Amino acid sequence: MMDAKAVAILLLKGVGQVMFQGNAITGAFFLLGIFYNSWLMGLAAVLGVCASTAAAHLLHFREKDIANGLYGFNGTLVGIAIAYFFGLGLIAVAAIVLGAMLSSLVMNFMLARKWPPFTFPFVISAWILFVALGIAGQAKLAANPPAQASAIDPASVLGAGIGQVMFQQNVVTGTLFLIGIFVASRISAGYALLGAAVGALVGIGLGAQMAFINAGLFSYNAVLCGIALGGSKLKSLSFAIAAGALSSLILYAMMVQSALPALTAPFVFATWIVLVVKAGIRQ
Fold first, then answer.
1. How many domains does the chain have?
2. Is 182 within 8 Å of 189 (Cβ atoms)?
3. Among candidates 143, 167, 145, 169, which has minimal Cα distance to 157?
4. Could you point out which of 100, 103, 180, 234 has its C-alpha 20 to 30 Å from the C-alpha of 126?
5. What sign does the CA torsion over 216, 45, 129, 64 have?
C-alpha cells in the first residue's frame, strides 16, 4: 500500500510525462501553470491523471511503467481536453473518467507491442468522447477564437506555444511549463523553445492568420516534436526541426479538412513519420 506522499509523487510524474519528463517537480510546475490559468482545467487534469493511473493499477499493468508515470499523462490530457471543450459538469466528469481509463488501455496495447505511443492514446480516446458527447447533444466542439493580431508577438508565440500543449493560451502558464521542463532537462527546454519557433515560422510561411500563430496554435505540436526527438547530436536537431515543421503542415491540413479538433495528432503522425525515416537512414 502506497502512502500519500508516494501517491502524490506518482501522479505528479504522470503529469510531467505530458512533455516526456518523468519528474514530480516538473509535474508540479505543470499543474501550477494549469491552475493559474483555469482552476476548472486544473481539477480536470487531476481527475484525469488519477483515473488513468488507477486503471493501470487495477488492471495490473507493468509496475515499472506505472511508476514512471507512463499511464498518467494521456489521462491528464483527456481531462483537460474535455473540460476545455465541454466544461466540467456531471456528464463531462464521467467522460473524463471513462476516457482516461480508455487511454490506459490503448497505452498498454501499444507498449506491449513496442509501438511508440506518445500521446496517441489521448488523441483516440478524446476523439471517441467528442463524437459520443456530440451525439448526446452535450455541446458543440467550439472554443473561444484568439484575439485578432496584425504582427508577430514573440513572447506570446513562445509562451502560449508551450502552454497550448495542455490547452493553455497563457504566457505565464507557458513560462511555468518551461521552468518545469528545465528542471528535468535543459536540452528538452531548449528544444521546446525551438519547436515553438519552428511551428510559428511554418504558420507564417503558410499565410495563416497572425492571431492563430500568436495564440501558439501552430507551435504546440512542434514543441512536442522537439522534446520527443531532440538530443545533443546534430542529427537530432535536424530530425526535431523536420518533425516540427511537418506537424505544423499536418495541423494546417486538419484545420481545413477535419471536423474534429487536431489535438496532438499532428505531433504523433509527424513523429512517427520521422522515426520511420530515421530508421531507414540507419539501415
1. 2
2. yes
3. 169
4. 180
5. positive
pTM over 0.85: yes
Do 131 and 168 share a domain, yes or no? no
Q: How far is CA 213 from CA 54, 147, 155, 197, 203, in A?
A: 37, 11, 12, 10, 6
In a domain, 143, yes or no: no
Could you tell me if residue 266 is inside a domain?
yes
Q: What is the CATH number of the domain that holds 69?
A: 1.10.3430.10
176 and 269 inside one domain: yes
**Residue recorded with cell 492568420:** 209
SS3 254: helix
CA 62 – CA 71 distance, rounded (Å): 10
Which residues does 168 contact at the CB level (< 8 Å), separation at least 6?
33, 34, 37, 38, 41, 160, 174, 177
Residue 30 and residue 68 in contact, taking contact as beta carbons nearer than 8 Å: no
Q: Residues 130, 143: contact at Cβ < 8 Å?
A: no
Computed over its alpha carbons, how large is the radius of gyration of the chain? 17
| Residue position matching grid coordinates 502552454 | 163
> 33 lies in a domain?
yes
Round to whole Å and give the CA distance between 52 and 31: 16
pLDDT in tens, 194-212: 999 999 999 999 999 999 9
Q: Cβ–Cβ contacts within 10 Å for residue 247, how many?
A: 34
Report the distance separating Cα 118 and Cα 110, nearest Å: 10
Q: Are 191 and 211 in contact (CB under 8 A)?
A: no
- What distance lies between CA 102 and its chain's CA centroid? 17
Residue 283 has a pLDDT of 63
Over residues 122-166, the pLDDT tens digits come to 999 999 999 998 765 555 545 555 666 678 899 999 999 999 999
Domain hosting residue 244, numbered range: 154-282
End-to-end CA distance of the chain: 47
